[in-house]
Design a protein that fits this description.
Elements lengths: L1 H30 L1
Length: 32
């Protein structure tokens, strides 16, 4: 089970980090 959940969790974290990074980048770009 852990072996099957690992890629799913890793993909989820990558998507979350990507979304947060994009939002922060957009906000910083707007401020500047």
């Amino acid at each position: 089970m852990s072996v099957l959940l690992f890629p799913v969790i890793a993909f989820g974290l990558a998507v979350v980090v990507g979304r947060v990074g994009t939002v922060m980048f957009q906000e910083k770009d707007q401020q500047v």
